[in-house]
Amino acid sequence: MGILGRLAGSPRDRFAKDALRLARRAPGVAEARYDRERFAIVVRRHDAQSPARIYLSNVYSESAGAPRAERRERVERLIRVMAAADASEPWESVRTRLRPVLRPVTFGQVGVAGMVPPVSRPALPYLREFVVVDAPESMAYVVPGRLEAWGVTADEVFDAARANLRPVAQASHEWPEDERRALIRMIDTGDAYFTSLLLAPGWLAGVTARRGAPVVAFAPDSNTLLLCDLVPGALSRIYELVEAEYGEAVRGLSPVGYVAGAGGEVVPYAPAEGDPDHAAARRAEVLLATTEYGAQAQWLSKEYDQAGIDVYVGPLLAVSRAGGPPVTIAAWTDGITSLLPRAQYVSLVAGGRTPSGSGNSPLVPWQAVAEIVDLRPEPLLTPARYRVGGWPPPNVLAALLDRAVS
After folding, report:
1. What would the pLDDT profile of 57-81 be if each residue is shown by its tens digit?
2. 375 and 325 in contact (C-beta within 8 Å)?
3. Which one, of 268, 207, 255, lies nearest residue 104 by Cα?
4. Quick check: bond before 383 cis, omega within 30?
5. DSSP strand E in 190-233: where?
6. HSE on the CB side for 258, CA within 13 Å?
7. 370: enclosing H helix or E strand
8. Which residue ranges make up each domain of the chain?
9. What gap in Å lies between CA 107 and CA 97, rounded to an integer?
10. Which of 190, 192, 250, 386 could form a disulfide bond with 375, CB atoms 3.0-4.6 angstroms apart?
């Protein structure tokens, strides 16, 4: 049976069949084939020595439920852009078209085995800063190989991208100001880079200065930026709205609210306990953490299973408390080699029994565990995980139990 015959199966396969047909007709394409395992079309251009993969997951999700004509148009645009991509442009040609973008911390990490992640650096909790080459119909992420070809460092690339963002940030400060309390929704149609404004030094502080009062920024997905006045006790409804949009987004970014810090830097809005907004803000932080650790756990578990590696990749658990925000827990289980996510508490578990002899697993604050046990982050994993195998010696276990909380 030929490949087209094997494609007549699931909706994903039928979608890929249409994409493959369009790819083979695209100008400049010498050959194309479907990589079913990776849900991608492998394309080789006439002038290219190596093929490129066009991953279909995002466009498949984005076009779900759309009319056939719209699905076809989306796929054609993706094929046209990716098949024509030119990775040989010199540095001086692309430098002015670089832009910084915010993406979840697992973006580019929890993909296909063997993929080289794009160049990135930490930006905010569970978010990273990437750089793209902007084009009229697309953006291409900068990968390490391009730095070598350009003969520049990662810092030079990030500096150039942020410099190119500066005019966008300055122009946004010139928009008409509404003196009334308002919720401003900025929707990017593809070339405005609104969520990237959170990476522009001093931008959110400038917005706050113009308003004359603190402003909270939300970025539920990569194309939407929301701005609203920080009115204590009035943000719970906004958090609910943002959480819903974040959960429904194909390319979700963050449900967390961000404000300008004391030095003008962007930081998560973290009201103190007792503040009317504390529970909602903390819930958003936990949601972002569990989502990113969940994506990482799903990917790592699959990779380890295929490689025959016996390591348990534990989830980051969120537990609600009566009258308070949720807390995060990582389970350390006796007799199992695990990769613990960083959490507020570590639960000591031993199959049906607990080291304390009670019916509940002791909860030890993470800081106490880090002080007593030599926890070291597993190399190359973001967000961080810590390898533990079984329980520590009796004296160390006793010290942990002494620091347990109810």
Report:
1. 777 877 777 788 877 877 877 776 6
2. no
3. 255
4. yes
5. 215-221, 224-229
6. 26
7. helix 366-372
8. 3-83, 86-217, 291-402
9. 22
10. 386
